[in-house]
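Researcher: I need the complex structure. Ligand is magnesium ion. Inputs:
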Amino acid sequence: MIKIKTPEQAEQYRRGAGTLSKSVLRAAGKLVKPGTSTKQIDEVVERLIRMHGGTPGFKGLYGFPASICASVNEVVIHGIPSEEKILQDGDIISIDTGATVNGWVGDNAWTFYCGTPSVEVQGLCECTRDCLKAGIEQAVPGNHVGDIGHAVQQLAEANGYGVVREYVGHGVGRVMHEDPNIPNYGKRGRGPKLEEGMFIAIEPMITLGTFKVRTLADGWTVVTQDGLPAAHYENTIVITKDGPQILTQDDQGPWCELQGGM
Ligand code: MG
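Model: Output:
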């Protein structure tokens, strides 16, 4: 069932969970440098979330063991932070942060450059970020879920990239995952109709090579089948009569820098 929220609830979400989820994502990006472990980033994010009165939205969710997902290079999503995973110059890292504040669950993600990735990989990241923007533009009342997926898929595939099928965006609110699912592929005019007051997390997961993925033996880490890099950008928005409004934004806005360590 799709839950419709009021404008007051959207404002509550933005000021609490939305702001904190973005500010800790931005802080995480500043730590993305060669020599940093993904565990260090996780610890800083958890401390910041708790310091600001929130709780980490991912920790314990379906049994996930950490406060962030830290997905390096060929890891698409759900990478588990580890002391042994040390970032290297040329890596990319997708960080997913969620903070729960006043009962609302924030959700957003960004892929950062560690040092200088190849031009090819930078292109993948830029395009995936633009796919997120293209998807958000379609989130207006009267459009359908398929319009979002179509916009994302068109842009990604026109640039020669793959669109992950098994994992999708979602409704969000008092819990991390609500109806409806928001695939990153689809046909115009298909799927549930978008209505004012829906909170949805749009999150393109785009690959340099094959769109096919598999899960490692830890039961979490999702990697591309060909081992080529993937990128992942996400914002949570509310659909309003005036168009989409991004709820996961802080005083610097809803976007981060692509370059980490800044
Ligand atoms: Mg999400």
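Model: Summary of the prediction. The domain at 7-246 is CATH 3.90.230.10 (Creatine Amidinohydrolase).
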